[in-house]
Amino acid sequence: MHDPRLTPARDDLAAKYLEGKVKAARFVEGQEYEIAEAIVPLRQAPAADAEQMTQALKGERVTIYDRNGEGWAWGQLADDGYVGWIAEAALTRPGAAPTHKVTALRTLAFPGPSIKLPPIEAPVMGTKLTVIREDGAFAITREGWYLPRQHLASLDAMQPDFVAIAERFAGTPYLWGGKSSLGIDCSGLVQVALSAAGTGCPRDSDMQQEGLGRELTDAEAKHLKRGDLIFWKGHVAIVRDASTIVHANAHHMATVVENTQAAIARIKAAGSEVSAIKRPT
Fold first, then answer.
1. What is the pairing mode between strands 14-15 and 27-28?
2. 103, 157 Cβ separation under 8 angstroms
3. pLDDT of 1 higher than 90
4. What is the C-alpha separation between 147 and 175, in angstroms, rounded?
């Protein structure tokens, strides 16, 4: 059974690479595009009020397989393989390959080499940019944006502690399908943090439970370590230390640091037991 979240296939149309694996009326090659706006929703249906399943960030690549003629395109994100509908206005033909990524929670892009100028955009952590040159304290992108150099790093730069990345999101509003400091959900927090540390990570908590690391034994689970992941049905939290976790959750409508046992008891009272504890590395 193919997961529709990761499989660009419908009854009427599917990606060419799936030919022979799925049934569809026709198969298409698709065209590669680049996300042109800072944060773009990937939706379940071609409508502005449809559910946001995840978000794509500027510089990310997406293969488009279909357009509905009303401003929406259907395709698959290159980074995590998620499939959905995206506004055509947010797409552009790919430019030069990205060279850098934003490592600050968010930064500001200026039209010239002065922080006194009105910012053009506010790229968030994980945004991919093509830097063409540097000018003092600024890195200049192919769009002519000037960004603080200390907020950027090369694409291959990896953070040593993914939990420290997650901790920086404390106070961020909870947003279903969100993956930035403007709004994030539980699995988005895990994905953004692990990606910053160089670990590939699927998007949703059930995918993460299935695909990340190894499950702890009952004995090991009594001695949680920093970086362990606690899973419930539809939820995931990151262990900070022996007594606390950090997680984005709808109870607080924010990313918070919380006592582990208190959180487990609260979630159990709401009807959900811990389903697994895994160690990513």
1. parallel
2. yes
3. no
4. 27
Identify the three-state secondary structure at position 164. helix
Which tokens go with 103? 């490592």
Q: How many C-beta neighbours within 10 Å does residue 97 have?
A: 10
User: In whole angstroms, what is the distance from residue 112 CA to residue 133 CA?
Assistant: 13
Direct distance between the N- and C-terminal alpha carbons of the chain, in angstroms, rounded to an integer: 28
Question: Which helix (DSSP H) or strand (DSSP E) does residue 210 occupy?
Answer: helix 205-211
- The answer to whether the CB of 79 falls within 8 A of the CB of 126 is no
Q: H-helix or E-strand containing 42?
A: strand 39-43
Q: Are 258 and 265 in contact (CB under 8 A)?
A: no
CB-CB contact of 3 with 18 (8 Å)? no
CA dist 194 to 103, 138, 158, 212, 227, Å?
A: 13, 27, 10, 10, 10
- Cα 130 to its chain centre, rounded Å, is 20
Residues 113 and 55: beta-carbon distance below 8 Å:
no
CB 239 within 8 A of CB 274: no
User: Under a CB-based contact definition with an 8 Å cutoff, are residues 280 and 229 in contact?
Assistant: yes
β-strands 229-232, 274-279 pairing: antiparallel
Residue 59's closest CA among 84, 89, 92, 29?
A: 92
Specify whether the CB–CB gap between 234 and 185 falls below 8 A.
no
Query: Are the C-beta atoms of residues 131 and 99 closer than 8 Å to each other?
Result: yes
Quote the CA–CA distance of 165 and 159 in Å, as a whole number. 8
CA-to-CA dists, residue 67 to 31, 48, 63, angstroms: 11, 15, 12
At 180-225, the pLDDT tens digits run 999 999 999 999 999 999 999 999 999 999 999 999 999 999 999 9
Residue with tokens 């899973």: 231
Q: Which helix (DSSP H) or strand (DSSP E) does residue 177 occupy? A: none
pTM higher than 0.90, yes or no? yes
